[in-house]
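Quick illustration, no need to memorize.
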Amino acid sequence: MSDQLPEPPEVAREVFTGDAWARAEAFAELLAGPGVVRGLLGPREVPRIWDRHLLNCAVVADAVPAEVRLVDIGSGAGLPGLVLAIVRPDVSVTLLEPLLRRTVFLEECVEALKLDNVEVLRGRAEEFGGRREFDVVSARAVAPLDRLLKWSLPLLCENGQLLAMKGERAAEELAEAETQLRSSGVRSAELVSVGHGKVEPPATLIRVVAGRAPGGERQASRRKVRASRPKRGRGE
């Protein structure tokens, strides 16, 4: 397999519009260069940077409400957090990452891409529960859903959403976490499919909407958590 960065596919110009196009191209170069050299991305991933990484993350923006505060936990190389910041300048993005070498890379990317809607925060999600509050938590290849819930729910405001990028086991993970979802007081949990006509296969998300009792403490909901069939995201 070639380790050369390929030309962006035509659909990329439909997803990354306006100022986002130049930033997406620059970020692809950063991932293929310093990102690989520093071990944040494997060399074999370079030919797939556009379709598997940039586009796959960008379509998650279809499920993100307007003008929200989003935290990307375990941000790593900035996937999906930096990509969401590129395509959604209306969203305030916090990249939360515990490893120093990764936060240094992220800070360099933010500066190089001239993104004024991004902050880089070093630490673990569990350290910021009760200290910081967000409307949306995003996560990609960070942990199984049961662990993500423990880390994410304390960061979310009432009706805030966890958007967890998942693969073929998404429905299985959702079913396995049903007991925990009930006891956590979430308002709903479902599969959402985004990126139809833009990426193949479409990206699968687990979307969990948090609940909160009066006084700020979460309460157990009596509503049945539903593991529904994938829905199309906003804007499709």
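Residues 213-236 have pLDDT under 50 and may be disordered.
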